[in-house]
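chain below, 101 aa
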Amino acid sequence: VNFSQIPIIDETWGLVKNKVVPGGTLSNLDFVGDKVDWDDNIKEEEKLILADAQTSGGLLISCPEPKKEKLLRLLKSKGVEVSRVVGQIIEDKRCRIKVTS
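prediction:
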């Protein structure tokens, strides 16, 4: 997951910097602690944003690499205002998520 590609609502930054986050977000972050390899450049606020309890995994779509441009065009044609590639799935025997800045 490439953090810089994640669309974030501007107002989110002020909330997270002031520690205005749902308790579920802290629980989520704790839960994934041993499942994520965080890049050294990822700040605590960024981790909280990615663990936000108010978002949904349903907001993510995966597809084979050769079909990504077609999918992005289809989403745009259906009125999806923001869509972008935020990462890729690679084989990892440890089944971990790597987050880069």
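Strands lie at 36-38, 97-99. The mean pLDDT is 91.
thats it, cya
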